[in-house]
Amino acid sequence: MLTLDHVRKTFNPGTADAKLALDDLTLAVNDGDFISIIGANGAGKSTLFNAICGSFLPDTGTVTLDGADITMTPEHTRAKVIGRLFQDPMRGTAPDMSIEENLALAAGNGGWLSRVRARDKLEFRDRLAQLGMGLEERMKQPVGLLSGGQRQALTLLMATYHVPKVLLLDEHTAALDPGTAEKVLAMTRSIVEENHITCLMITHNMQSALDLGNRTLMMDHGRIIYDVTGEERSTLTIADLTDKFRQLSGKALDNDRMLLTSERHSEKGR
Amino acid sequence: MTLDKWLALGQTALELGLVNSLTVLALFVSYSMLNVCDLSTDGCFTLGAAVGAVVAMAGYPALSIPAAMLAGMLSGFVTAVLQTRMGVQSLLAGIVVNTGLYSVNMAITGNKAQLNMNKTDTVFTWAKELLQGTPLAAQYKLVVELAAVALVVVFICLFMSTKLGLAIRATGSNADMVRSSSINPVFTTTVGLCVSNAFTGLSGCLMAQQQKSFDINLGQGMVTVALASLLIGGVFFGRSRSVPLRAIGAVIGAFLFRVVYALALRLDMPAFMLKAVSAIIVVIAISGPYLKKQLPLMLRRFRSGKGAKAC
């Protein structure tokens, strides 16, 4: 179980640019939860992920994972049990290195001076084949030659190579074309379900926020303003969500992309 | 010019090229793999030379080589700590260490700007004695240097395919990805710079012992010369992704640089022009591809006759 207990973070404190990014945020994520997170730009969604990953030290509050306080644990140590995908497909892979070499680092088998063995290569091949993108035939090629969708799929494979306790998806399909986005999303879903990974996903697509997972969070001004699960969630529509947002935050949802996608979906519905 | 003279010219170029190629290989690790431009190279080269000279003159020729490499490693460690732990920008960290090393080097030589090793036993005099009477007797310098370069190339090839080597390469390519693979980029940067500077130290040590003298300015401009050689070498195997081929390319680059320089000297170019030539080569090699990309745009501006004045 992952918990954030009264986490607060102010960026540029004491200056005119001071921004309260996380406002006394408390969240308990149950094992096996698949949570979708929505909210306007600057609501603190990515900052929440940064707090979980350890990209910064919160001003106050603690982060606990499976009973252990990891607030002070450095980012790269947490990465052993927390996987993360970014919107930018370029961020998760080393472009100058081959697919095989990237996977070797993600696998991290053996000591510092160990090399990639034939056994590892077979395993990489197997795993790549499961993505269904033909990447297993291109293991020696540099990752820089792959398309955005292929790179994101590879990043997903790398982040889940050793099943993480928590997987954080930060709009990981937003930069992909619709067809590829769907494919990567389906891939994500099957990997997460197969391995029972606890997963948090930021999305601007309200429909997939409701379709995917078992719980939805709405964030505004560094706080969670709406946390819905179970039966109440299963009857929610996009219109309900935008209404809810207006009612809870006292303003209209001002995320352009979010509005665009919700419009697109309501048009489809008509 | 007679054949003998050409051969002598080739041999000198090869001797100097091989010694320099160790520094080029060091930059291959730091610049090409780790993507750090290590400006402490000049000072570190002199440091290796100073330590190598002092230890050899104290009567320990065998010890001089590991001592010079260890000194280089320490210097690399300081550069790495400055840029990873103390918030000094990467380029500045190198410059600062380079400046500091001048004093360190003078302290090592006991405040002497020059040391004479004419009567000192070194690995080169050992090789000379060992090879006496064999067909290789005249090439004793080449034998020692070839052995050193071969060992370093083999080491780099083996090292870069280990998990640590891959992590160092990934740090140069995408540090975010390294962190998410639960590897600390601070650690990989530190190891990379230590390894790289150990080679720079070795290079300086062999240079001083080969020419039987040490000079405090031995390493001046070395980073530019080595970078020029690395970029020349990149012309051959730069497109290749294979580490062994690129490492060999770096060695060839160092040799070619020396050949060009030796030829230029033959054409009565004064020796002091070496640094200018290397600076120009670096500029051409780095800005060439950029200018090539800009050329169509510049031509269009020029043809339309408007240029920058229009705005």
Task: Present the secondary structure layout.
The complex is a heterodimer of chains A (270) and B (311).
Chain A: E1 2-11, E2 19-29, E3 34-39, H1 45-53, E4 60-65, E5 68-69, H2 75-78, E6 82-85, H3 99-107, H4 118-131, H5 148-159, E7 166-170, H6 178-195, E8 198-202, H7 206-211, E9 215-220, E10 223-229, H8 230-234, H9 238-249, H10 256-269
Parallel strand pairs in A: 3-8, 3-9, 6-7, 7-8
Antiparallel strand pairs in A: 1-2, 1-4, 4-5, 9-10
Helix pairs in contact in A: 3-5, 5-6
Chain B: H1 3-33, H2 41-57, H3 61-85, H4 90-108, E1 114-116, H5 123-130, H6 140-160, H7 163-173, H8 175-180, H9 185-210, E2 213-215, H10 222-237, H11 243-266, H12 274-304
Helix pairs in contact in B: 1-6, 1-9, 1-10, 1-11, 2-3, 2-4, 2-9, 3-4, 3-9, 5-6, 6-11, 7-9, 10-11, 10-12
Give your account of this protein's structure.
The complex is a heterodimer of chains A (270) and B (311). By secondary structure, chain A is an alpha/beta fold. Chain A contains ten helices and ten strands. Chain A has helices at residues 45-53, 75-78, 99-107, 118-131, 148-159, 178-195, 206-211, 230-234, 238-249, 256-269; strands at 2-11, 19-29, 34-39, 60-65, 68-69, 82-85, 166-170, 198-202, 215-220, 223-229. In chain A, the strands form two sheets. In chain A, strands 6-7-8-3-9-10 form a six-stranded mixed β-sheet, sandwiched between helices. Chain A has a four-stranded antiparallel β-sheet with strand order 2-1-4-5, covered by helices on one side. The longest helix of chain A has 18 residues, at 178-195. Residues 263-270 of chain A have low confidence and may be disordered. Chain B is an all-alpha fold and 311 residues long. Chain B has a single domain, classed as ABC transporter involved in vitamin B12 uptake, BtuC, CATH 1.10.3470. In chain B, 76% of the residues lie in helices and 2% in strands. Chain B is built from twelve helices and two strands. Chain B has a two-stranded antiparallel sheet with strand order 1-2. The longest helix of chain B has 31 residues, at 3-33.
